Amino acid sequence: MTSLDKPTEDAQAAQQDARAVTEAALFEAFGGVRGMVETVVPGLLFVTIFTINKNLHWSAIAALGVSLLLVVVRLAMRDTVKHAFSGVFGVAFGVVFAMMTGNAKDFYLPGMLYTLGLAIAYIVTTLAGVPLIGLILGPVFKENLSWRTRNPGRKKAYAKASWAWGLILLAKCAILFPLYWWANTAQLGWVLITLKIPPFLLAVWLTWVFLAKAPAPIDVFAEMEAEEQAEKERKAALGNESGDEATAGRHRRDA
């Protein structure tokens, strides 16, 4: 291996490490495969039961029950429950809406409104210069908001990713909301289940592509720890100097 080969290999290794870190962060932020399963299963159970017997109450009870079961499983395994809990809240709102109106399609309405609101949030925050995906992933990468002022290349990547999320979710809403008015409950439910995972995976993949090419995150936690350690060392050095001066003064008095 020549001296010219090593920098190239080092750069490739650093790029691979950055991609691995990005993948791990995305899995942590969005729940990975298990999080997707927990998102899909309650709605899938609801639409399956309703398609079979057209019974809103049994469908709603089954969806809410499986959501609670997923939380219990997470708790039993001492795993993070944020994704399972978010699923419970989403299902609970859907059940309340459907029970209040007596219209089974309203089970899906809160989730659809949330998707629309999230799409708007991605776009508005990006236009405001604070892309939402950066706010979500910043703490995961231990960079917090340092990308806003200290890492312009990373801010640009977050902006691209937020645009991708916003436009993908808007496209999803453009399909679902007309179906809410025109299709029956079973048709809407199956289309919604079909559109649960593919748009999400597309948005995550685009986020990975943008961030894998972006500059590395600035670890602000490591910086703070380094500053604290430097401050301790400075105080220790000042204490040693004071001790040496005091010893020298006693020696002069003794002399």
UniProtKB/TrEMBL annotation:
Keyword Transmembrane found: yes
Protein name, UniProt field: DUF3159 domain-containing protein
Keywords annotated in UniProt: Membrane, Transmembrane, Transmembrane helix
Keyword Membrane set for record: yes
Positions of region (Disordered): 231-255
Membrane-spanning parts: 56-77, 84-101, 113-141, 162-182, 188-211
Pfam families found in the cross-reference section: DUF3159
Superkingdom, taxonomy of origin: Bacteria
